[in-house]
Amino acid sequence: MGERRHPPLPAVARRRSSVHGDGVFAVEAIRKGTRIIDYAGELIRNDESEAREDEYSAQGCIWVFRVNRVWSRDANVGGNLARFINHSCQPNCHFEIVDKTIWIRASRDIRRGEELTYDYKTTGDRHIPCRCRPGCTTLL
What we know:
Elements (H helix, E strand, L loop, with lengths): L11 E5 L5 E5 L8 E4 L3 E4 H13 L5 E3 L4 E4 L11 E2 L5 E6 L2 E6 L10 E2 L22
Parallel strand pairs: 7-10
Antiparallel strand pairs: 1-2, 3-9, 4-6, 5-6, 8-9
């Protein structure tokens, strides 16, 4: 019995975003449900992550992703392109946590050239304005 193999991940690229700073864009069409990329970063205990979260938040960035009640991933240390996926209140992707791996998956079919977004589902002090669309009043 071999290990279950997943199809190759779709091609994505970092580009300037109309949402905020840089974003991640589909280089090819991506079907609903497809695993796109894992949110990589240093695995740290949540009690270690709070100081980093405060520092990044002061810069207007969210790099730390809570995995569970004990662990977080800091994408500013050892991260990959996934850290540039912008937040949206009307996203085309969602995240799925499998063990301590955070997968970004397509919530619907995504066109080639479309920017990838997901809802960060942040908790705590919310003071970074969402820029997902004109008039959005959500704070992250």
